Amino acid sequence: MELLKQRIREVGIVLSDEVLKLDAILNHAVDPVLTTAMGREFARLFREEQVTKILTIESSGIPIAFAAAQELGVPLVFARRKKPLNTDTETYSERVPSFTKGFVTDIMVSKEFLDEADRVLLIDDLIANGAAARGLIRIIRRSGASLVGVGIAVEKMFQPGGRTIRDTGVRVESLVRIASLANGEVQFE
Ligand code: 5GP
User: Fold this and answer.
1) How many A from CA of 100 to the centre of ligand 1?
2) Looking at the whole model, is its pTM more than 0.90?
3) Which residues sit opposite 124 in a β-bridge?
């Protein structure tokens, strides 16, 4: 997606060989024109899949997932992050390591928002090692819903997340693929 690449070139800050700061468009501020375009692109990619619901995780996934939900005309559900992993039977909870924060977080979705009739499109802002996406996939599986695919705005190809999920047979589409962040430079694939 050219527009997203262009905006990453303009505002992306390479923090290390591993981390690209995208606060200006994804993680702290929202560009409505770009976000709407990303939603449209996710919708185009998954339009034939009879999606009934979009699932993302708070907070940075919400704007792009909302844009996709609007385009596909389906509801959006976002997993919430909470501190202790409790034994509440009314929620699906999973524990996932956080890539950027360096600690483990618990994520949860209330059982009332996912069921076996759902065909779920999972959307997130970035994928690194894939822990967040795999946690959300476990929640979808536990609910009995079908996973139609995963849509990611920015995939870092030098980290294994996207590949490990594709290897399980799940369709993963990313709008922009980054081959490397070495030498302070964003190299697109
Ligand atoms: P994963 O679980 O795939 O290792 O990491 C995914 C999550 O960590 C994303 O939802 C994103 O919030 C954050 N993340 C991972 N790598 C980066 C990065 O390079 N830049 C930013 N801004 N966030 C990242």
Assistant:
1) 6
2) yes
3) 152
